[in-house]
Amino acid sequence: MGRLMANESLKETTFMQNEGALIDSLQRRDPQALAALFERYANPIYRLAARLLNDEQQADGVVQNTFMALIEHIDQFEGRSGLGTWLYRVAYNECMGRIRAAAPLVELEPLVEGELLPTNLIDWDSVPESVVLDSESRQQMAAAIESLPPTLRAVFILRDVEELSVHETATALGLSEAAVKVYLHRARLHLRERLAGYFGERRKPAER
Q1: CATH of domain 124-207
Q2: pLDDT digits (tens, 9 = 90+) for 105-153
């Protein structure tokens, strides 16, 4: 039994290391290939959807629909982007569709004119690591991320949380690479502005 599990794990690892073999197996409807892909991408896609929609149940639906789309359309996959990037694109489009349906007038794209400059800055290196990593601070950070406009939020999550490249993020979100860089810069500035007061207050006791 242990050897069988080890062999299955090795096969899943091989799938993820060779995308061509993975796509061939998916097109042959190999359940192990689908399981390997789900194991790799289900949680990241869920995190993206949950933070864009602020709704865990809807996020589960996005994950389910994303992999259903994969099964339905894998025969037409042309490989112009990575399979993971394609999954992020499907999930992002579904999230944006749900946001539009819930609030048709919501501003999905941030304004690009001018330059956003924070009025409050804080030296993050001066904040004790124990403060930055505690549960209260994580809640504050999560709330700050949720306050970002959807496109900025998606760029920040894919680049700084999931650590996709600029190219992968641009492909997944249907943006230019230049736009991704601008939006990521704006997202980081927004978060610094939003969290400056909070961490400034949390830093004071440590300085006494």
Answers
A1: 1.10.10.10
A2: 555 555 444 444 444 444 444 444 444 456 777 788 888 888 898 999 9
Give the pLDDT confidence of 27-53 residue by residue, as tens digits. 898 999 899 999 999 999 999 999 999
Cα–Cα distance measured from residue 84 to residue 62, given in angstroms and rounded to the nearest whole number: 15
Burial label, 55 (beta-carbon count in 10 A; 0-12, 13-18, 19+)? middle
Query: Does pTM top 0.85 for this prediction?
Result: no
User: What tokens appear for 50 in the block?
Assistant: 């949950």
DSSP-H helix ranges across the chain: 2-17, 19-27, 31-53, 56-73, 83-102, 129-133, 135-146, 150-156, 166-173, 177-207
Q: Considering only CA atoms, which of 27, 29, 30 is closest in space to residue 12?
A: 30
Q: How far is CA 100 from CA 91, 96, 188, in A?
A: 14, 6, 25
Residue 109's identity, in one-letter code, is E
Q: Token digits for 101?
A: 């349906």
Q: Which long-range contacts (CB under 8 A, 24 or more apart) does 174-177 make?
A: 174/89, 175/151
Give the tokens for residue 20: 């061509």
Q: Which CATH number fits domain 2-102: 1.10.3430.10, 2.60.40.10, 3.40.50.300, 1.10.1740.10?
A: 1.10.1740.10
